[in-house]
Amino acid sequence: MRPLRRFLGALLILVAAPVHAQSQPECSCTDLEGLQQDYQNTVYLEKSYRDLAKSMKDWEANAFKTANIQTPPMNVPATSRAMVDRAAKEYFFVPFPQVDGYFGPMSVEMTPKTCDIDPALVTKMEEGAPCSGAAEAEVLNAVRQQLVCEKMGAKVYWDRPGSAFALEKAENYKTKAADLKTQIGLALDKAEITVSGDWLYTMSMPGMEMTYHFQFESKDINRSSSTGDTWDFSATGETRHELTGTNFDGLSCTGSGAVVHQFNVKLKTDGLTFGLVFDGKLGGGEHVVTCAGTAVPMPGAEGSGWGQFNTPTMPLVTGETALPSGWTEALAPMSGVLGMMAGIDVTGEPKTSLNVSCPMP
User: Fold this and answer.
1) ∠ CA(81), CA(86), CA(90), 5° rounding?
2) What is the C-alpha separation between 214 and 331, in angstroms, rounded?
3) Any idea what the Cα angle at residue 17 is, between residues 115 and 99, rounded to 5°?
4) How far is 277 from 225, CA to CA, in rounded Å?
5) Mind listing the pLDDT tens digit of every residue in the chain (361 residues)?
6) pTM here?
7) Collapsing DSSP states into helix, strand and coil, what is residue 316?
8) What angle do CA 190, 218, 317 make, to 5 degrees?
9) How far apart are CA 179 and CA 173, in angstroms?
10) Cα distances (angstroms) measured from residue 333 to each of 124, 204, 211, 298, 330
């Protein structure tokens, strides 16, 4: 009856873990960096253990052929298990040794030759996580091996060769990575994501100077679909391009008017990086120069601030991420008649950014 009791005890821990984790706050975009780091560590460990399992399986196949002709005979399973443990300790280096916001033990292992896990360490792992979703991922990963051990029996479990242990680790980390990826998506769902640009600039040439203010901002970008390991977010917004001032030699003139366009913006992300696609729709409005009471519309202005443009793939982080200035410049009126004329000097620093903010609960 004792193995059955241990199995039921492990199962109870597994079932109760999400309940315990509810004492912590749900994961939000304030936990994004830690979730991303934990995910990258987990993906690294999955690949490392999977590669190690393949190498060890090849080594074990050769070792079994010669084990009995050695004096004393080699215990191949025990030797390969020791090799796996040594390789993990000496050659595995996760990208983030200290995950942001996590203060629990790096791992929780069973006592050798048993299916026992110290429940105090499991509790420390859970309590050391920054949010409930991360806590569940850590605890479930620790307890998963215990359930396998109880199902197989401790002797059978521990008599396996190292390749079997390495493959089990890889599969467990694969499941944990999927759990963390889900939490990253939920954290982004709770974030406020916008893209905006601002460019106050002056175009000048001999005898003429014109000042413009180009701005755009999207509404909150929300998840619209999921494809494999990537998610699509989308939103709409508006570009506004104003003529704010003019200076012509020998003339008293003023500049006014705005060209306004609507746009759609799509953000594609794998939870770690993102790319943007801007798709502007031709709208309306005009720029007007008024000299001595006569108003003259500026040619080509209606074509500024629309079109389709892509950004390169960039890291996805909370806060403000500066986007390449050329993205704003491509939307501004350089496509107009004035922009095609030679000898024009353009001054002013464009600023474009993706903003990921975390609203207060």
Assistant:
1) 155
2) 9
3) 90
4) 15
5) 344 444 444 444 444 444 344 467 899 999 999 999 999 999 999 999 999 999 999 999 999 888 776 667 788 999 999 999 999 999 999 999 999 999 998 888 899 999 999 999 999 999 999 999 999 998 998 889 999 999 999 999 999 999 999 999 999 999 999 999 999 999 999 999 999 988 888 888 888 888 889 888 999 999 988 777 899 999 999 888 888 888 888 787 888 988 888 889 999 999 999 998 888 777 788 889 998 888 888 765 665 555 667 788 999 999 999 987 665 555 555 444 445 555 777 788 888 899 999 987 6
6) 0.84
7) coil
8) 45
9) 10
10) 58, 14, 12, 11, 8
- The overall longest dimension of the chain from CA atoms, in Å, is 108
Residue linked to tokens 């991420």: 321
Count of Cβ atoms closer than 10 Å to residue 187 Cβ: 27
CA distance 222 to 202: 35
| DSSP secondary structure of 108-169 | --PPTTS----HHHHHHHHHTSSSHHHHHHHHHHHHHHHHHHHHH-HHHHHTS-HHHHHHHH
* Cα 140 versus chain centre, distance: 22
Tokens coding 106: 């790096």
3-state DSSP call for residue 36? Answer: helix
Strand partners for 230: 227
Per the listing, tokens 């390749």 go with 163
Q: How many CB atoms lie within 10 A of CB 231?
A: 21
For residue 226, CA distances in Å to 182, 223, 233, 355 come to: 12, 8, 9, 21
Residue environment code for 70-97, b if the CB has 16+ CB neighbours within 10 A, otherwise e? eeeebebbebbbebbeebbeeeeebebe
The DSSP code for 68 is G
**Computed from CA positions of residues 305, 306, 308, 314, in that sequence, does the dihedral angle turn out positive or negative?**
positive
